[in-house]
Amino acid sequence: MKNKRQLTLALAVLFTVNILLITMFQTAEAATYRQGSSGETVRTIQTKLKNWGYYNGAVDGIFGSQTAEAVRYFQRSNGLTADGVVGPATLEKLGIQVKGSGGSASSQSNSVDLLARVISAEARGEPYSGQVAVGAVILNRVEHPSFPNSISGVVYQPGAFTCMVDGQINEPVADSAYRAARDAINGVDPSGGAIYYFNPVTATSAWIWSRPLITVIGKHRFCS
Question: In whole angstroms, what is the distance from residue 61 CA to residue 46 CA?
Fold first, then answer.
């Protein structure tokens, strides 16, 4: 009788482990998209790539060769392995969160790190409140209907930030930038709700001067 109970328990444990492994495998599979894939997530990938100038094909939810080439173009432009496969790292930079892939502590950490990198590159040497304000602008854009709805989507939007063009994003990150990133994520906003900022000494766009001024912090003008 005892052996029978032990056997039943062992079979139950084995069954549970198998279910967990299958679920993990299916989740991993669901979060990877390549040529031949189809569905709403593929449509979202195509839409983002098209909006950002990487793709000019049909937004049809079918991952064909043209979509794969656009993905490789995006990956090369953003420091990823250019394999044409949209896995977790590429999804993160596209600002796409797939149901089942989770918004883990690791994802939160990646968001803080990316935000800190931009703050450090764009506002190194600025007052601390100015660093927080730059982070707040990015988060304000995430909430604004005219911009991508994730930190990575906002940061990697083509032409949005000078540091993405001149390589400053890859420079060492100041410790204060990490603090500023966390403060901004926690709701601190010295910018007053701004969605733009610029340095009037180096700005080359006449259009940016047309944006209504909210406040000036250090060398940056923050605008709506």
Answer: 7
Instruction: List pLDDT tens digits, range 71-107.
Output: 999 999 888 899 999 998 898 888 776 654 444 445 5
Which residue type occupies 199? N
Q: Is the dihedral of CA 63, 65, 67, 73 positive or negative?
A: positive
Q: What angle do CA 154, 158, 161 make, to 5 degrees?
A: 65
Q: How far apart are the first and last CA of the chain?
A: 75
Evaluate whether 35 touches 46 at the Cβ level (below 8 Å). no
Residue 143, both tokens: 């909430």
H helix intervals, the chain = 2-30, 40-51, 65-77, 88-94, 105-123, 128-143, 151-155, 162-166, 175-185
Q: Report whether pLDDT(224) > 90.
A: yes
Q: Is the dihedral of CA 156, 150, 161, 203 positive or negative?
A: positive
Whether 194 and 223 have beta carbons less than 8 Å apart is answered as yes
